[in-house]
Amino acid sequence: MVTDDYTSSQYDQLFRREGAARYVQETYGFPCSPQTLAKLACVSSHGPPFHKAGRFPLYPKTGLDDWAQSKIGPLVRSTSESSMCRENTGPR
After folding, report:
1. What is the tens place of the pLDDT at every residue in 39-75?
2. What does the alpha-carbon distance between residue 89 and residue 84 come to, in Å, rounded to a whole number?
3. How far apart are CA 59 and CA 82, in angstroms?
4. Cα separation of 53 and 30, whole Å?
5. Domain span at residue 24?
6. Is residue 20 included in any domain, yes or no?
7. Is residue 3 part of a domain?
8. Is pLDDT at 80 greater than 50 in this prediction?
9. Residue 1 lies in a domain
10. Which burial class, exposed, middle or buried, applies to 70 when counting CB atoms under 10 A from its CB (0-12, 13-18, 19+)?
């Protein structure tokens, strides 16, 4: 019996830029636009990782999850506590 070494669970879901922005917004609840992702891809290394398929960027779901979670700050109980966290960790 021949078996395929690759199963669908080994492949990460890929999103085009518009779908990636929608996924981040719906999953994590903060604004994310395709234009923001495009700008981050061109001028910054702080955006989510992506593959290129020809001229199209493809964002893996796990990369979007990691990036979005890194943008979310720690849980705080007051705004003063929030500013103390930023002072200790530096700008995001």
Report:
1. 999 998 999 999 999 999 999 999 999 999 999 999 9
2. 9
3. 30
4. 27
5. 13-89
6. yes
7. no
8. yes
9. no
10. exposed
